[in-house]
Amino acid sequence: MSYKIETLISKEELRAGIQRVADEINRDYEGKSIHLICIIKGGVFFMTELSKYLKMDVTMDFMAVSSYGSDTVSSGIVKIIKDLDEPIEGRDVLIVEDIIDTGNTMEYLMELLRDRKPASLKLCAMLDKPSRRLKDIKADYLAFPIEDKFVVGFGLDYDQKYRNLDYIGAIVFDE
Ligand code: IMP
Ligand code: MG
């Protein structure tokens, strides 16, 4: 099936949205240090851009998860592909995720991380598709809510491609 990629959020809009989120985080975490947990691979571009504007002491760790089931329907069963390198007990942890869709992945992950007793645990997402939500998950920080479209770029892939785009595009299939 052939398709094209239409710009949904331009490079400039994206940067402004991410800066706004960083401002909110700077305000809320003033005087603290923050431990970012990036969900790879999709969260990498967002975390690097976001963290450039953070003013407190920042540490980072990475986690890879995958959801069982077909590509289009996330099952709610999440498998850890790569766990964190360091313990999070007593730390102020912020999860940095590319996009929240059904909420299955984040519901599972937040419960798992909460069991490790961080001082605080919050969620920061670049994009959110609220109309697709199946679980009661809400980002504490969000750059952009979007409609129910399949998007690529700035870390997000379609068949592992387009992660390197410096904007967010929507995949539009030809009739
Ligand atoms: P959830 O468990 O349904 O919330 O799934 C979230 C995950 O699905 C995200 O972290 C992405 O990896 C992937 N995903 C959801 N929507 C899109 C999209 O539009 N483009 C690319 N990946 C997506
Ligand atoms: Mg993801």
Condensed summary:
The chain is an alpha/beta fold and 175 residues long. Helices cover 22% and strands 34% of the residues.
Model description:
The protein is of the alpha/beta class and 175 residues long. 22% of the residues lie in helices and 34% in strands. It has a 6-stranded mixed beta sheet. Strands 1-9-8 form a 3-stranded antiparallel beta sheet. It starts with a strand and ends with a strand. The mean pLDDT is 95. The structure holds inosinic acid and magnesium ion.
Question: Major sheet: order of its strands?
Answer: 4-3-2-5-6-7
How many E strands? 9
The end-to-end span amounts to: 9 Å
Tally of individual helices: 3
Largest sheet: 6 strands, mixed
Q: Could you state the order of secondary-structure elements as H and E?
A: EHEHEEEHEEEE
Structural class label: alpha/beta
What overall geometry do the principal axes of the alpha carbons give?
globular
Associated small molecules:
inosinic acid, magnesium ion
Mean pLDDT: 95
Rg (CA only): 16 Å
- Share of β-strand residues: 25-35%
Low-confidence stretches: none
Helix content: 10-25%
Protein topology:
Elements lengths: L2 E7 L1 H18 L5 E7 L3 H9 L5 E10 L10 E5 L9 E9 L3 H11 L5 E9 L12 E5 L5 E2 L15 E6 L2
Parallel strand pairs: 2-3, 2-5, 5-6, 6-7
Antiparallel strand pairs: 1-9, 3-4, 8-9
Magnesium ion binds next to loops.
What features would you highlight for this structure?
9 strands; 34% strand; 3-stranded antiparallel beta sheet; binds inosinic acid; 175 residues; 22% helix; alpha/beta; binds magnesium ion
